[in-house]
Amino acid sequence: MEKMRLINQSLSVQVARELEKRVASGEWAIGSRIPSEAHLMELFGVSRNTVREAIRFLVISGVVHVRQGDGTYVQTQTVFNASIQKRLQEEEIRNILETRSVLEPRLVEMATERGTPQEIETLETCYNELQAAYGGDFQQFVDKDTEFHVLIAEMAHNPLLADLFKAIVDQLSPFIKEGYHLFQISDVPLFLHKDLFVYIKNKDAGAARRNIERMIELEKDILHDANLL
């Protein structure tokens, strides 16, 4: 990593912002341990106290967490994500679902209009992997299902909306996973995912929106029948 030169502003704030940038860029992935205090002191040319203050800010913000005797680990990508996740954790599941019902159909429309050929190819690969996991590895199926929806959100090319959607998915995933598990993968309409991919590929935003609305309603029914709402 290239050594940084920091000026003027509070050094601890600058270091915190630089650390957050590296997390947001994916240089330090979620779940990974960030470099040691000594390494960060050398990287930024600051004191140990400055590094500790910067890390403390990110801990309070929810971006990282400290494991005593082990190190500091990335918890989420940005302060925004951490704030949204904290807010969602305090909210009822039905309200989170309602927010998704408003947000995701519009993201699907935007993805249909803005998705690049390369992104559509990536989405097709994800769908094929989702199909391959259907009726087999349950965890892999759930992971690929989540990845499929997140890829579509990213295809909308609005990072703010995509981050909000990812935070919503993070909160809903455990409930959806439990609902799927209770009713078995065979009851999940894989054909809706295939149709959604085809509509996006063919640039049919209206059909894609109707498809995702149907999918969301089906998931609501599954959660309701599983007494998770």
Task: Give a quick precis of the structure.
This protein has helices spanning 11-24, 37-44, 48-61, 79-89, 93-114, 117-133, 138-155, 159-183, 190-201, 205-225, and strands at residues 64-67, 71-74. The protein has 229 residues and is mainly alpha-helical.
Could you spell the SSE succession in H and E letters? HHHEEHHHHHHH
Measured by DSSP, the beta-strand proportion falls in under 5%
Low-confidence stretches: none
Number of domains: 2
- Strand segment count: 2
In DSSP terms, counting alpha (H) and pi (I) runs of 4 or more, how many helices? 10
- Report the radius of gyration as a whole number of Å: 20 Å
Q: What is the CATH architecture annotation of the largest domain?
A: Up-down Bundle
Across the major sheet, the strand order is 1-2
CATH superfamily of the largest domain: GntR ligand-binding domain-like
Question: What distance separates the N and C termini?
Answer: 47 Å
Query: What is the overall pLDDT average?
Result: 85
Q: Which structural class fits the helix and strand makeup? A: mainly alpha
Description:
With 229 residues, the protein is mainly alpha-helical. It has two domains: 11-79, Winged helix-like DNA-binding domain superfamily/Winged helix DNA-binding domain (Arc Repressor Mutant, subunit A, Orthogonal Bundle), CATH 1.10.10; 91-225, Four Helix Bundle (Hemerythrin (Met), subunit A). The chain has ten helices and two strands. It has helices at residues 11-24, 37-44, 48-61, 79-89, 93-114, 117-133, 138-155, 159-183, 190-201, 205-225, and strands spanning 64-67, 71-74. Strand 1 and strand 2 form a beta hairpin. Helix 5 packs antiparallel against helix 10 (205-225) and helix 8 crosses helix 10. It is elongated. The N and C termini lie far apart (47 Å). The relative contact order is 0.11.
